[in-house]
Each structure stands twice: as structure tokens, then as C-alpha cells.
Amino acid sequence: MGLLNRTKRVELEDGEWIDVKPLSIGGLRAMRQAAAKVEVPPGEEKDEAQGFELSRLALESCIVAWSDDAPVTPTNIAELPYQLMFKITAAIGLGEPEAPLATGPTSTESSAVTSAE
To answer: Cβ contacts of residue 58 below 8 Å, gap of 6+?
Structure first.
């Protein structure tokens, strides 16, 4: 197995797995350029739309096999549970292994409880 043909097994729950190849430099650049051109749906932020597109392209490019009986296709990749995206993209070198925490203003109710304790 050469440097350009390596794969990595991502272990999931219940004995399931997904084999991925690492994201290449050229592949990442092409995906970022494609994601920059994505049409932003109404009600979605540009960064969010581009992030989802980059993740979609990366998963489609890097997933080479999995334990499921269904074939690895773009349609089936789109059906993967959302939380798996973070674990898989981290394994290919694109992101963190878990979903980021929600950001935004803190609720005044929870702030009041914290300061009263």
C-alpha cells in the first residue's frame, strides 16, 4: 500500500465501520472552490451552506467502503446520520470529531440561576 492509496477504518457503534481515504491537498482545494459557489438556500447563512457543501463533497470523495449492505453512493451517503459526519470528516482530516456547541446569546433565565447560586 503506497502513500496515495491508504485507507483508514472509522469504527462506529454496534460493530459498524466506514473505510475512508485521506483528503488530498488537490482534492481539498477543488472542494473548497466548488463549495464557494454553492447557492445559499433561503434562511441559511452563506458559511453554513458552504460548510455543508464542503462536508458533502468530502464524504463523497473519501468514503470508499462501509459495513452496511447498501452500496456507497452519493444518495446513501446523504442518508448517514448527521452526528456521523463529524466523526468521518475528522478521520479524513477535515474538522472536529464532534458537533460544535451551539453559539449565541446566553438565556437570561439560565444566567439568573447561575448567579443566584
So the answer is: 23, 27, 28, 31, 89, 92, 94
Cα(91)–Cα(84) distance, rounded to whole angstroms?
A: 11
Give the three-state DSSP class for 33: helix
Q: What values do phi and psi take at 55, rounded to 5?
A: -65, -45
All 3 cell numbers of residue 82? 448527521
Which residue shows C-alpha cell 458533502?
Answer: 56
What's the CATH number where 22 sits?
Answer: 3.30.2220
Q: How many domains does the chain have?
A: 1
Dump the DSSP string for 81-105: -HHHHHHHHHHTTSS-SSPPPP-SP
Residue 104 structural domain: 3-116
* pTM assigned to the model: 0.74
- At 36-93, the pLDDT tens digits run 999 999 999 999 999 999 999 999 999 999 999 999 999 999 999 988 988 999 999 8
